[in-house]
Amino acid sequence: MKGIVFTEFLELVEDKFGLEMVDNIISSSDLESGGAYTAVGTYSFSEMLQLLQHLSANTGISIDDLLLVYAEHFFGVIEESYPGLLATYKDPIEMISSIENHIHVEVRKIYPDAELPTFVVESKSENDLTVIYKSSRAMHHFGLGLMNKTFEHFNATAKIELEKIKEDGTEVRFVIHKN
Length: 179
Fold this sequence. Notes:
Blueprint: H1 3-17, H2 19-28, H3 45-59, H4 63-81, H5 83-87, H6 92-97, H7 99-110, E1 118-124, E2 128-134, H8 140-153, E3 158-164, E4 171-178
Antiparallel strand pairs: 1-2, 2-4, 3-4
Helix pairs in contact: 1-2, 1-4, 2-3, 4-8
């Protein structure tokens, strides 16, 4: 998992819960990196999982809800760092349906060894989109949060249904109905 995911996560934790919480979740975890991350480094997903689990235990907020909040924060990073990428699109359905064939291609140019989830478009119309999310990491709520922020970015709203295809969350169907 790319280091930017860790550095931004810890920045969010510091902003929302304070530096003591950052120290607490790092020291409570058994991290191969020791909790020292660089944006361009690559780290084990198990480290992110430990940090999320300890943050959840300390705050009483579910991991899924933490991932939603983190996705909102991360979308802001994308807006600030890659405005040209977002400007390519005029509609949230178009943008979300382009994740696999355009956005991930661009991400791989910056982070060639990034392990990204797969998004397969099952069906698409002007106001509806069904996408299958596949990942060895059950971070589908992070994807859901990014989709929510995508609609917000385009001043649009949608109903997004999440259906687990695999109980462990490594394969999920998103059914999106734009309002």
